[in-house]
Every structure is written in structure tokens, then in C-alpha cells.
Amino acid sequence: MPQPITCIEDLRALARQRVPRMFYDYADTGAWTESTYRANEADFQRIYLRQRVAVDFSNRILAAVMVGQPVAMPVALAPVGMTGMQHADGEILAARAAAAAGVPFTLSTMSICSIEDVADATDKPFWFQLYVMRDRDFNDSLIARAKAAGCSALVLTLDLQILAQRNKDIKNGLSAPPRMTPSNILDIARKPRWWLGMARTRRRTFRNIVGHAPGVKDTRALASWTTEQFDPTLNWDDVKRIKDQWGGKLILKGILDPEDAELAVRSGADALIVSNHGGRQLDGTISSIAALPAIVAAVGDRIEVFMDGGIRSGQDVLKALALGAKGVFIGRAYIYGLGALGQAGVAKALECIRRELDVSMALCGLTDVRQASPANLVRRGT
Length: 382
Known about the structure:
CATH architecture: Alpha-Beta Barrel
Shape: globular
CATH class: Alpha Beta
Order of helices and strands: HHHEEEEHEHEHEHHHHHEHEHEHEHHE
């Protein structure tokens, strides 16, 4: 009899069994030595919650608001590239699970399912994440397509002007198209759930790009196009231009320094995400949760502050909220669920996080998640 799924770690272990190694490692890897990837999780363990007793917590509220949008809990699904290679039609399944749970889903520019695929398969607005490419006309077309699809917020990623080295991807032969070495072929053959699902879908390439970007008609042309397109000249003038062009809610992702947070405020964006790209870009930098308090102190209430990186439980969510975040984004936590069980796995990941957040909040004496503050944490040595 299969063991019950009780936490995100159970989903991770199952995903590792069911997803081909090259795609599992793509999601579950960091840059270079992966020290920042590990720190994102480890630093949460150094934060302690303050338990309270004899408090009437019979009526608890987890609902909140993120960039003007009511949410069932202050958690959003982060943009993750190649989500549709963790499970067939992965972006569609994740978007449906998020909508059912009452939380936002963010579609990556580098998704397998396109903006139009997700819009056609779901009945709730989702958010779209934009990378700035050298081809500004293509950027403009992505923004126009997101508008046409009814996306309710644009998440602009700022920390991928140049792609860091991820050693596992190189060793696994992850490319566009993937290298079909004997080892990779054998590994895929041992994952029948995965390849049967992929055989049944037509969505197996980067559908936001292939057939839309000039000269990119298939995955072979995509590899060289992508390498050339990430734009090292991205600057705050570009942010303003994109904000004006978008005209809706704008969230800036990849802020890790208080000075950049101040520039984010001046840009007129609605929110920022304290993020180090899941430890996938600058290895050896500070964890997101360690960077959060200084950024909150720097910007105050002038902009909404979210964070991502290392969240694997509802307790992690509560700790981030107590340190000043208005909400969090989860990436790997829901990707594990998707790889393990498809849409049901994403729903299970969100259920685990919600349950842990609810119970932990109660045991800290809180009745409303929006009341979380540093008073709910214990200072070391006191």
C-alpha cells in the first residue's frame, strides 16, 4: 500500500522517481556549487516561531490580498521554466490547481504551454512572467498576448540578463532539443507515466516562442536564439517603458539588495519579489529570507514586498510573513507535486502548505494571517 502524502518532501521523493532525471534536476538544481540554493532552505531553519497558549483561535483567517487580488492565502505559484516537461501539459494543470485553491498562478516566458494554451484551458485570470529579450518587438508581442489573454499582473524578472552555469544541466545534456544519450533514453524508458503522458500531448516545445519569434520555427532554432536573446543591457528605463506599455499591475522579480528595492519603488511598480532566482543565478549570495528584513525596512509601505526561495512548508510561509512579506511565491514545492501526481499533486502541495500555515498560525496565537509580525518570532539567545 502506498504511503500517504503528508508534506512537500513526500512529493519531492515521488517526483524524483517519476520525472526523467534531466528534467527533475533542471527544477531541483542551483548554479555552480549550489550554496545559495541550499541556504534558501537552511536559513529558514534558523528562524524560530514563538508559541502562545490559552488564546481563542477558533476563528482563523488565511485570506489576504496580493496586488489588489483577493487570495485564499498569501501564496502564489512562481514562474518556472519548462513546467510542461515535469508532467505533460504541466502549466495548464498547475494553473487549474491554483485556481481551485484560490491562489495566483504565474506562467513563465519559457513555458512549454503557451499563454494562449493556458488561457483556453482555464477560466480564471493568471499572471505572466516576462524576460526582457534583445528583440524588443518580440517582447512587445508577448505583452500584447498577455493582455489579450486577460492576464491580471505582469511579473518582470530582472536577474536573468546573463545565464549562470548550472552544472547538473550540462552533465545531463539538457538542451533544446535535449541530448538523447543512451543514459537519457534508458532513464526516460523507466518513467512510463511520464512518457505516456508526453506522447498524448502536442505541447512539447516552448510554445510562447516557437512559431512566434522571428526565425524560430522549431526547437533546433530555439537554442541559438535563446542564447543570444537574454539582454545584458536591461536597465531601469526599460522597466519604466514596460510598465507604461503594460498599464496594469507590475511585479518586479529578483530584488535582493535594499538599494535596488529603492529603485523598484521609484519605478512605480506595484510590488517586488525578494528573490535570488532559487539559487540558480548568483551562487554565493545571500538567501532570500535573510535579505527580506532589510528590504522591508528600506521600502516600508511604499510597495508590496513578496519573497520566494526555499519555501517548503506553511511554517516557512508564516516566517516570511512575520518578517514583513505580504505574500510568498512557491516554485519547487508545487513542481514536486506536479511531477509526482500531476494536477492532484499541485493541489496536494497547496493543501499541505495551507494546513501547516493554519495550524502554525493558531499555535502562535494568531487568528488572522495578515497580523503576522516579528512578535511571532523568538530571538536567539532570549
